[in-house]
Design a protein that fits this description.
Order of helices and strands: HHEHEHEHEEEEEHEHEHEHEEEEHEHEH
Strand content: 15-25%
Number of helices: 12
Structural class: alpha/beta
Helix content: 25-40%
Mean pLDDT: 92
Shape: globular
Radius of gyration: 23 Å
Distance between the termini: 12 Å
Strand order of the largest sheet: 12-13-2-1-17-15-16
Low-confidence stretches: 1-25
Number of strands: 17
Largest sheet: 7 strands, mixed
Amino acid sequence: MHRKYTMVLGAAIAAGMMFHMPALAAGNADKPIVWWNRQPSNSSTGELDMDALTWNDKTYYVGFDAGQGAELQGQMVADYISDHVDTIDRNGDGIIGYVLAIGDIGHNDSIARTRGIRKALGTGVEADGEIDPSPAQTNVDGSASVVQDGEIGGLIVRELASHEMKNASGATWDAATAGSTIGTWTASFGDLIDVIVSNNDGMGMAMFHAWSKEEGVPTFGYDANSDAVAAIADGYAGTISQHADVQAYLTLRVLRNALDGVDPDTGIGTPDEAGNVLSEDDFYYDEKSRSYYALNQAVTPENYKDFLDSTAVYTPVTHQLSEDAFPVKDIWLDIYNASDNFLSTTYKPLLQSYDDLLNLNVTYVDGDGQTESYLTNRLGNPNQFDAYAINMVKTDNATSYTALLG
């Protein structure tokens, strides 16, 4: 027991007073936490925040393998250029020019995707042993220091421009900003742009609808949102599925297991009593970082019809748990930005399907994408919840939440 409560309790007993001790923050500090989608880390260096990831013995992270997904996206773009090397150069200048929409320069997933593209296209420049993910800004003449010219099929590949898509209020991964930026880029570069690449589908689709669909310029995104997958039939070149159905299940399943005090692998790598189980092709667990990672899948014109419903739950883990054996528990879960296309239109509906299957009463809290306090202020009474699923605005800010728990 915390010393200050011990002293108060002792004084009350000595005075012969009736004393009702409030719920202690330490009790909340012992409850399960899942950090999801935004891994606690240093936004400048990418170094994991192990204090947050090991907050207690029931703390985990759930996301996806950013490196593997980034490689898939990069290879998808490189393969497309290689397969269309005779026709992709719109103005015949011998340079395949691409523009890159960067989501958040401080987000590990965004960093990985930028690196993956530059690695696959040969445009990356190493800094401190890794490819520099910094925005190139404008690089029409190929003089930017953070990128270099690559080569595919005898043609030069050049990153003409790349910017972080942040709006005036500070929200990153901003689709509207991407939609307006492609207008600026096309006004400046015109037919120098042969390919568009985006760190996510929200921004990619904004650029597709604003310009590239009509111009027939291949546009690549990430997330496999339903609208982006459907747009492949209309010329959207491809996207990457994060296996959101697996991620959403893991987000809640990890909490369910921790609350039940069972083996953490129950219903994940080991079948539960209802028959729910994932395979090694779906995910892996990294014990050192206490992190579950879903594996990505490439979505192309050849297979996109298999991904048209991004909110469909994953069949191997759709078996209802018995409420007698697994009583209902209360969960606080936040989404950092209600306007984030992937989280709001794909991830949240999946969570809402799995919460019923796992007998979890989830309070969903939508953020503004800008300030941590918008979310933390809505966790005013953490005592009423059995566990927490936290999606931060910034990956550095884990302590904003743990400070409320003890």
